[in-house]
Amino acid sequence: MFAAVTGDEDVCRERAEAARSYALARGLGRPAALALFALAFLDLSTGRFAASAARLRALAGFGPGHGHRAIRHIATPHYVEAAVRTGYTRVARVAHADYDHWARTVRSPDDLALSARCRALLASGAEAVEHYRTALDLHASGTRDFETSNAPARSCCSAVRYGGCGTGRRPVTGCTAPSRRSSTSVRRSVRRRRGPNSASWGSPPPRCGAPTISSPASPRSS
């Protein structure tokens, strides 16, 4: 996952393939899900939105031994963006509604910031600008190492998207990752996250027998 966050594409793909193969052979859902999420994160950060959406849609549908509900929850804001970028706005709204309910329930600035960013992606014009501003304010109040140490990946992503909002420019899709010394913080943050036990993001999940992580299936429309 850290290789994905830092944009080390070759290392990310090599390690994710190895980790997922090992985990699936042993029925280990969480590492299998995290490997798939790492590739989806990498795809999203490099502008491969359809591939990212396909991986994340598959992740949402996998049960025990293939997926994990906490990883699915962590991935939700990323799925919202990938879905919006590929025209799946309705399922993006469904996914965001689930995440937003969780964020408002736990009242964590970190989750609320990501929910506000999702809301901005689903809006336009002045409304989107206000949601991005809210997201940045909430990121500043966050307590999780991954979101707040150095140049945090998620608040950075919110900032660059805000920078492109309302200017006629396409929002930036990649962002500078935290320095390598924060790798422990990244892993600790992922372990701490927990989420609701939802089965999908508003559309039928893929059939079991996951697509290979190097060649994800196309996302289904809703």
Index terms:
222 residues; mainly alpha; 11 helices; 64% helix; 0% strand; globular; disordered C terminus
Q: What is the radius of gyration?
A: 16 Å
Described by the principal axes of the CA atoms, the overall outline is globular
Please give the largest β-sheet.
none
Count the E strands: 0
If you average the pLDDT, what whole number results?
A: 75
Taking pLDDT < 50 over at least 5 consecutive residues as the criterion, the unreliable ranges are 148-156, 158-199, 203-222
Indicate the proportion of strand residues. Answer: under 5%
What structural class results from the helix and strand content? mainly alpha
General description of the model:
With 222 residues, the chain is mostly helical. Helix content is 64%, strand content 0%. It has helices at residues 2-5, 9-25, 29-45, 49-61, 69-85, 89-106, 109-121, 125-140, 145-148, 153-164, 183-192. α3 packs parallel to α5. It is globular and about 50 Å long.
Blueprint (SSEs and pairs):
Elements: H1 2-5, H2 9-25, H3 29-45, H4 49-61, H5 69-85, H6 89-106, H7 109-121, H8 125-140, H9 145-148, H10 153-164, H11 183-192
Write a compact overview of the structure shown:
The protein is mainly α. The protein has helices spanning 2-5, 9-25, 29-45, 49-61, 69-85, 89-106, 109-121, 125-140, 145-148, 153-164, 183-192.
